[in-house]
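Narrative progress, year one. The postdoctoral researcher (J.K.) led the effort to move from monomer predictions toward full complexes, under supervision of the PI. The following entry was the first complex the group processed end to end, covering 229 residues in total.
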Amino acid sequence: GDSVTQMEGPVTLSEEAFLTINCTYTATGYPSLFWYVQYPGEGLQLLLKATKADDKGSNKGFEATYRKETTSFHLEKGSVQVSDSAVYFCALSAFSGGYNKLIFGAGTRLAVHP
Amino acid sequence: DTGVSQNPRHKITKRGQNVTFRCDPISEHNRLYWYRQTLGQGPEFLTYFQNEAQLEKSRLLSDRFSAERPKGSFSTLEIQRTEQGDSAMYLCASGGLSLGTDTQYFGPGTRLTVL
């Protein structure tokens, strides 16, 4: 079945460091891909998405490119801030039977220190 | 756009009790989803509504769980005879009208603790 694999955390960085969180997927068909962020005690917020191969999603300085050849959707940010500390989830969405459901990775915790 | 809301935000109950959670989706969204998230894991799909029709239920949704969306607006998730293994965050999400619109917007969740 469809699945998402993320790099294990926690990822600990100093402020202004470069961030990469790896995400690979297995899916039949051509799913949309998402990154969601979860701050402590809160629900999930959509960070960015990409709907087809070679699309780049971007938001708040974060970027991810849909790579069909490597089945990857790695999250990057050039300069992280303390306020980026959160758990990041990679997810795929595939339509089946007229609706979609999201399949999530286990999440990667990011801790940014001043 | 007021976003997806969920109530209560926290619920503590004793094993064997029944609990009910409510989700109010974004008003123009006809798709509504429930997910369960356990500590350290990503959310897992439980069930899906299109308008008032429940079109899909995960095998995770045992017969102690029931979900409704009576008028195609808000939804409720009830757990009967709660067990300690039901302790989790229950997340509701809603999505837009058109086929092919696959973005889901999540509420803040209801955290259930079963003692």
